[in-house]
Design goal:
- There is one protein chain.
- By secondary structure, the protein is of the alpha/beta class.
- It folds into 2 domains: 7-58 and 93-174, no CATH class; 217-505 and 520-528 and 553-660, Peptidase S8/S53 domain (Rossmann fold), CATH 3.40.50.
- 24% of the residues lie in helices and 19% in strands.
- The strands form 10 sheets. Strands 11, 12, 13, 16, 17, 18, 19 and 26 form an 8-stranded mixed sheet that branches. The chain has a 4-stranded antiparallel sheet with strand order 4-5-3-9, with helices on both faces. The chain has a 3-stranded antiparallel sheet with strand order 2-6-7.
- Helix 8 (265-275) crosses helix 9 (307-319), helix 9 (307-319) packs parallel to helix 13 and helix 13 crosses helix 15.
- The longest helix is centred in the C-terminal third of the chain and has 21 residues, at 579-599.
- It starts with a helix and ends with a helix.
- The model is unreliable at 1-22 and 180-199 (pLDDT under 50).
- The chain binds 2-acetamido-2-deoxy-beta-D-glucopyranose (NAG) (5 copies).
- One 2-acetamido-2-deoxy-beta-D-glucopyranose binds at residues 475, 485, 624-626.
- Pfam families: Peptidase_S8, Pro-kuma_activ.
- This is tripeptidyl-peptidase II.
- Its cofactor is Ca(2+).
- The active site is at residues 307, 311, 580.
- One of its GO terms (cellular component) is extracellular region.
Length: 663
């Protein structure tokens, strides 16, 4: 019976108004007004059981960057000395003394020790106690609140207090002044349905029957003569001097994230037979299914739209005999609405499921998929939490705009990337395919922000703890001996301005490791476009007619070829374009480097950005092309780092030498 009562209270939510605060208690949180359409109802029955959570203030988040640099900066004596998950939890958990102080107070106030639960990630204390007890502890009154449209009921209070010596240890308490705020995906209306997959773009094939080999091609081996028009794994290996892979070990299995798109074995087989004879027919990834993700499908399936096929084509052809783990995330209903990647991170780190930061605990319904999925045919299992061990390298070619998720949501998630980086994991992420805009229909018809859609719209995640990958291309009249340009092309309706996404985040400031590269960019190659300085809550995007945030984290970090890849999807051969291609190329490069490090007894490279920014010589700088959009010129690829192609494309021999030279 007790459980039933708890469930009912949770579902109906709780509210309260203040009673006089005795001298030992001090006001902790107070609400100025109720959210629109919510009205206060009756007092909660005094013996109703409330699920009370006390969010403890986290220690050490301010030190997170230093910790990550300590294991990731090439000059650090602790480079590569990654932490265990337990060490990460302990470092960011509230100090034991703080936990003890709050517990002691609760117990002295009559809460039974056995009723107090300390969460797995150590971030909060939980207990189920009668309303009268909670009201006494927090010197408040709980009321029901009713939503005038939907009739939904939640519990909360107008203000509450805590003993003075406890306040510093407590972030906030629920139920409290917030009526379990539901997060909105986006702050603006969309004119077209959401589609969270700027996947690769398929252009016509063949597009020009009159194309002839460029001058100079004749001196190249036959399988490298057409790389300006038809990119194959052989072309990519030649461009970046990537040797034929030969290592298969247990620890460097590469991870690929996929969601809503599903690979077809027949398509992989056709690709291997045509362009990657080193990979045997039937080679497939190990499936780690997350929240109902399934794979593979038949080639003609509506879920086979190219992304997964191409990610696997490139990855297997570059790293085989090394194997691949496929994280197929979300059921086929949620996959198209889950824009935030939190369900993926939940599955990789159970503590993230209940992690509290920036006033958010756990997933955010409205941004994240919810499991069990109530939709007909949805996945009915519980949310996957800590189900899988993350691979050392994970490549992701999906994204929406940064603006689509609330600022605090992205900050909380970015902390998780920091923690996974501390543990030696490398995340490579496609930057997006619409230059300075997001994809058409994301936030506005042209994918841009501001009242007149002229403000640039950075792609998510702009977190400085992932390696953001842009794209490059060769032109028709070029060979692998030419320097690549930024990927840009007119690929037809709604993709006229297809190009390597890049620019400056609104949600994250320039990280220390990138400061000198960005300062040099502005000093030597100022784009001459109007800009603004973002404010603390990122509420002035586009202020003063500016197009971009002058003080934001710049992206991408690096780039690789993302044009004219020949591949089969639904058994039909096409040319594929996008930063979707570039991310798995970088993921493969890092995997091959990790293998060589493993072979000499060293650990994984982990978070690579600080090493790359300090050693730009190890990349091929890209200096031609641009990413126009939102009615203006966008940015140009220039000497040094730029917000189109980052530091450039991989030179495998130089990168290998660099990383083998580190501890
Ligand atoms: C968020 O938490 C802080 C304490 O960290 C608190 O002062 C603030 O009122 C909270 N904000 C909201 C919107 O709940
Ligand atoms: C796959 O190709 C077949 C044969 O051309 C076609 O009938 C089918 O509609 C295609 N499937 C999809 C999802 O486009
Ligand atoms: C975001 O997080 C900060 C820091 O915890 C907090 O002060 C602020 O109120 C949060 N904003 C929202 C909208 O919850
Ligand atoms: C959009 O219009 C509103 C109302 O006129 C104004 O307050 C706001 O500053 C404008 N935003 C931008 C980015 O121009
Ligand atoms: C430079 O990029 C432009 C497109 O911006 C392209 O037309 C031109 O062919 C490129 N030149 C070289 C040398 O790659």
């Amino acid at each position: 019976m007790k459980c039933q009562l708890i469930a009912a209270i949770v579902a109906f939510g709780v509210g309260c108004h203040a009673i006089p605060t005795p001298s030992t208690h001090v006001l902790h949180e107070k609400r100025s007004s109720l959210p629109r359409l919510w009205e206060r109802g009756g007092r909660v029955e005094s013996d109703a059981i409330l699920p009370v959570r006390i969010g403890l203030t986290q220690d050490n988040l301010d030190n997170g960057y230093e910790y990550l640099m300590d294991v990731s900066h090439p000059d650090s004596p602790n480079f590569g000395k990654h932490w265990t998950a337990e060490e990460v939890h302990d470092a960011f958990a509230p100090a034991q003394a703080a936990v003890q102080a709050v517990r002691d107070w609760l117990i002295s106030a009559g809460v039974r020790p056995i009723d107090i639960v300390h969460s797995d990630n150590k971030g909060w204390l939980a207990m189920n106690i009668p309303a009268w007890k909670a009201e006494d502890l927090f010197r408040t009154e709980y009321h029901e609140h009713i939503h005038s449209d939907s009739g939904a009921v939640r519990v909360g209070c107008d203000e509450y207090s805590l003993p003075e010596h406890i306040r510093e240890h407590v972030d906030y308490i629920t139920p409290g002044v917030k009526l379990s705020a539901s997060l909105k995906r986006s702050l603006v209306e969309r004119s077209t349905p959401l589609h969270n997959k700027p996947g690769p773009y398929k252009s016509h094939y063949p597009h020009d029957p009159h194309w002839t080999f460029p001058p100079g091609a004749g001196s190249l081996p036959p399988d490298l003569q057409a790389c300006g028009r038809n990119i194959t794994p052989t072309c990519i290996k030649a461009l970046y001097d990537i040797p034929n892979a030969y290592i298969k070990d247990d620890v460097n299995i590469m991870g690929l994230y996929e969601s809503g798109d599903i690979y077809s074995q027949a398509d992989l087989n056709s690709f291997f037979a045509a362009y990657a004879l080193n990979v045997p027919q039937g080679t497939h990834p190990k499936l780690d299914s997350i929240d109902g993700g399934e794979a593979p499908v038949a080639p003609g399936s509506e879920y086979n739209t190219g992304e997964s096929d191409i990610d696997m084509d490139l990855t297997f052809s570059l790293i085989y005999p090394q194997t691949v783990t496929l994280y197929q995330v979300d059921d086929n209903i949620e996959a198209f609405t889950d824009g935030g990647f939190n369900t993926f991170l939940d599955a990789l780190d159970g503590s993230y499921c209940t992690y509290t930061a920036y006033n958010i605990t756990g997933d955010s319904p409205g941004v994240d998929a919810v499991y069990p999925d109530p939709a007909p045919g949805g996945y009915k299992g519980p949310l996957a939490c800590g189900t899988y061990t993350p691979t050392r390298v994970i490549s992701v070619s999906y994204g929406v705009s940064e603006y689509d998720a609330p600022l605090n949501y992205t900050r909380r998630q970015c902390n998780e990337f920091l923690k996974l980086g501390l543990q030696g994991h490398t995340f490579v992420w496609a930057s997006g395919d619409y230059g300075v805009a997001s994809f058409p229909g994301d936030d506005s018809d042209n994918g841009c922000l501001g009242n007149d859609s002229t403000v640039y719209n950075p792609s998510f995640p702009t977190c400085p703890y992932v390696t953001n990958v842009g794209a490059t291309r060769l032109y028709d009249d070029q060979t692998i001996l030419d320097r690549e340009s930024a990927m840009q092309a007119d690929l037809g309706p709604s993709a006229e301005l297809f190009s390597s996404a890049g620019g400056f985040a609104n949600y994250f400031p320039v990280p220390e490791y990138q400061k000198s590269a960005i300062a040099t960019y502005f000093a030597k190659h100022d784009p001459g476009l109007p800009y603004y300085y973002i404010n603390a809550d990122a509420s002035n995007i586009g202020a003063n007619g500016g197009f971009y945030n002058r003080v934001g984290r710049g992206f991408p970090d690096v780039s690789a070829n993302g044009a004219e890849l020949l591949a089969y999807v639904n058994q039909s051969l096409g040319h594929w374009w996008g930063t979707s291609l570039a991310a798995p190329i970088w993921g493969s490069v890092v995997t091959l480097i990790n293998e060589e490090r493993t072979a000499v007894g060293k650990g994984p490279v982990g978070f690579i950005n600080p090493t790359l920014y300090a050693n730009a010589w190890a990349l091929n700088d890209i200096v031609n092309g641009s990413n126009p959009g939102c009615g203006s010129a966008g940015f140009a690829a220039v000497e040094g780092w730029d917000p189109v192609t980052g530091l450039g494309t991989p030179s495998f021999p130089r990168l290998l030498a660099l990383f083998l030279g580190l501890p």
